[in-house]
Amino acid sequence: MPKYYEDKEEDNRACAGIKEDFKACLLQHDCVLKEGKLPSQCLKEGHCKALQTSFFECKRSMLDTRSRFRGRKGY
């Protein structure tokens, strides 16, 4: 579920909620906070994999030619 904040500007772009959750997951993970690694290094180690997959699927659905007829998937 996307997290919404009251003091944040509204982002109407596609996949914005998933992108924000994915970014927050990486930046708040112990790999970044306690071990001091870069988020890209933690991503290679497999942290936040479910959100990464969801973000990828959302972006991929934007390029899917079948979505012209069916509409974008609900993200």
Question: Notable features of this structure?
Answer:
75 residues, 0% strand, mainly alpha
What would you note in describing this structure?
By secondary structure, this protein is an all-alpha fold. It has a domain at 16-62. The protein is built from 5 helices and no strands. Helix 1 runs antiparallel to helix 4. It is elongated, with a radius of gyration of 14 Å.
**Mean pLDDT rating:** 80
Task: Give the amount of beta strand, in percent.
Answer: under 5%
Shape: elongated
The helical percent reads: 40-55%
Radius of gyration from the alpha-carbon trace, in angstroms: 14 Å
Instruction: Please summarize the sheet with the most strands.
Output: none
Low-confidence stretches: none
User: What structural category arises from helix and sheet content?
Assistant: mainly alpha
> How many DSSP-defined strands?
0
End-to-end separation in angstroms reads 9 Å
Number of helices: 5
What is the element string, with H for helices and E for strands? Answer: HHHHH
Brief characterization of the structure:
By secondary structure, the protein is mainly alpha-helical. The protein contains 5 helices and no strands.
Note the topology.
Layout (H helix, E strand, L loop, with lengths): L15 H12 L2 H4 L5 H6 L4 H15 L3 H4 L5
